[in-house]
Amino acid sequence: MGNSSLPLNDYHINKTHVTLNRLYMFIHGIFLSSLFYYRFTTLNDLIKTSSKTLLPHVLILISELIITFIWVLNQASKWRPVTRTVYPDRLPEDEKLPSIDVFICTADPNKEPTVGVMNTLISAMALDYPPDKISVYLSDDGGSNVTFRAIKEAWKFSEFWIPFCRKYWVNNRCPEAYFSSTEESGGDDLVEFVAEKKKIEKRYDEFKDSVLRIVADTSTCVSRDHPPIIEVINGVDPKQKEMPLLVYVAREKRPSHPHHFKAGALNVLVGFRYFAVVEDYFTGLNLHCEGWISVYLEPSRPCFLGASPISLSDILVQNTRWYVGLMQVGLSKFSPLLYGPMRMSTLQSMCYAEFAYTGLYFVPLYILAVVPQLCLVYGIPLYPEVSSPFFFVFSFIFLSYQLKHLQEIFSSGHSLKAWSNEQRIWAMKCLTSYMYASLDATMEKIGLTKAIFLPTNKVVDDEQTKRYQMGIYDFQASALFMVPLCSLYILNVASFIIGLVKILQSHKGNEMIVQAFIPFFITILFFPLLEGMVIRKDKGRISPFVSLVSTVVSIVVLSFVSLVNY
Ligand SMILES: O=c1ccn([C@@H]2O[C@H](COP(=O)(O)OP(=O)(O)O[C@H]3O[C@H](CO)[C@@H](O)[C@H](O)[C@H]3O)[C@@H](O)[C@H]2O)c(=O)[nH]1
């Protein structure tokens, strides 16, 4: 064990990335200024001539202002990228290590499979850390009998698992992951290790069976009305000194009293009072404002395993909750732009602000998915002609945005497919989750609604997993999400076709090229939506009901504008 005066990590500034990022910021910034020069001078001319086309121009300007605002905030995280090296050999001796508490939250055994929750708990107990310095708390907001009974089974299994991990230097301390991987640790005696591994694997299977039996025999209902329950699981057996402390906690819940979801669970401890449903973000913001210096490390071997949603429905529900919470903070007195700069660096405040205000992206995306298209159909130019020098400005901004994204995708080891998937998913989130989240947070602010927390579904559906692994989109999501997406898609395809015909007839290609390009780009990029509506027949396709309603909505929008226009 090492010298405590030496740092546990140090960082290296990635000079190539710094140069590239700053060059991009500078050049893109100059072109953005030219864009706004063009917009304001055009608007000025329109006002002077009392033009009837002022409204679409103002809407486009609003969209460009919001995109630029978020773009500026985004540059903070690119200003000085670093990579870190850690020195675990410099850690102090065991006696000098601080005690740690691990707080695991669960809320609903129907959405968070109990075997998975117990694996999390067992991995935390088996951390490579002095056992008498680890305390693991399982916070069960579901107040569920299933969880209460299963934790006792987990304890019994960990009495074998933890010594096994220590004896054979097991790296992967999550039993489910360990037994489904090919990790072969072990000491000098391979025969003994193999025999022990077989035994512990049998015990793990028995443990899993017993948990699954509990799930089958016990009601998985979550309780909303119960007194507080706190139980130390270890008991008082002195032989258990080699085991961490394990405690089951279920907060008191009463129907008349708001319990504030996970934030409420943390209110019981961490000090801060949480008012938003993204307590992780709020914790970070507050701690950083109080002077905490954190270090982000991304080792090649991941430190944690997580359950990430793979169906569109789960992603959109999860993102709606996230952006409600982020907007709640953004609209509060803790807005990172007001609360942050006095307490932490400007760059850090900008990073936090980017998250808080990203939900606003839905405004420009709706404008850009509707206004240029309708104006294309009705022959109203909103962008410079091909012969204008400003045409180059708009083209450059689009290309530099896309090239920067591609560079980030490639430098993080991903492919062209990841680039198109990211763009699609991002736009889908903007047009649905961000919109509902921003509206919900605003209504909550003025007292019209109350925030809800729908835990992310962690149940694995085999068919969905198969589609995910084959790279096929699963469109089984609520009509509330799918109708806006499909309506906008149909509107774009229709306006591109109508617009193209009109351009060919009127020879107005020179002034309408950008407006024709936008729906063309959307038609190509979101081709999976067309496939989902028209070609696919599997369970993950877009339902005929959604396709029908969306077609009606897009026809209504197109016709409504024609009525206004004439
Ligand atoms: O009433 C509740 C609702 C949820 N949870 C727990 O909160 C955690 C986060 O919920 P989850 O559904 O997993 O949300 P995710 O969106 O997947 O989680 C991310 O986003 C959350 C904020 O929305 C953060 O709390 C998490 O740390 C972060 O991983 C889970 O352990 C839940 O069991 C509770 O303890 N009580």
TrEMBL record:
GO terms for molecular function: cellulose synthase (UDP-forming) activity. GO terms for cellular component: endomembrane system; membrane. Pfam families: Cellulose_synt (PF03552). UDP-alpha-D-glucose binds at residues 111-112, 141. Its main location: membrane. It is a multi-pass membrane protein. Keywords: Cell wall biogenesis/degradation, Glycosyltransferase, Membrane, Transferase, Transmembrane, Transmembrane helix. The chain crosses the membrane at residues 23-41, 53-73, 360-380, 386-403, 477-500, 512-530, 542-564. One of its GO terms (biological process) is cell wall organization. It is found in: Endomembrane system. It comes from the Eukaryota. InterPro entries: Cellulose_synth (IPR005150), Nucleotide-diphossugar_trans (IPR029044). This is Cellulose synthase-like protein G2. The lineage of its organism: Eukaryota, Viridiplantae, Streptophyta, Embryophyta, Tracheophyta.
